[in-house]
Design goal:
mainly alpha; Serine Threonine Protein Phosphatase 5, Tetratricopeptide repeat; Ankyrin_rpt; ANK repeat
Length: 99
């Protein structure tokens, strides 16, 4: 398992922040945010599935893609329940990326 994926899945904001802070440059952060597990899920997919709005906000502010599909063709915005803060954040990010 990938530590950033696990921290995002559990909603551990402080650990996610620590891991991102440990990255020594923007390229390293980008690679971390784009890393995928065996199902093609990024850290943002994991945070979205757990509806961890604070983690989602942090990942998006660091450049995570809200439109990247996993192996099942799902984007992070499709994973949280309708009407949740997590869903609203991701839908807004998806709309912003499209414009």
């Amino acid at each position: 398992a990938i530590p950033l994926h696990d921290a995002c899945a559990g909603g551990f904001l402080e650990i996610v922040q620590l891991l991102l802070n440990r990255a020594n440059d923007a390229e390293h952060i980008k690679r971390m945010l784009e890393s995928v597990d065996s199902e093609g899920d990024t850290p943002l997919h994991h945070a979205a599935r757990g509806e961890h709005a604070d983690v989602i906000r942090l990942l998006l502010s660091n450049g995570a893609s809200a439109t990247k599909e996993n192996l099942y063709g799902k984007t992070p915005a499709e994973l949280p329940e309708h009407g949740t803060d997590a869903r609203r954040l991701l839908e807004a990010a998806t709309t912003a990326m499209a414009t």
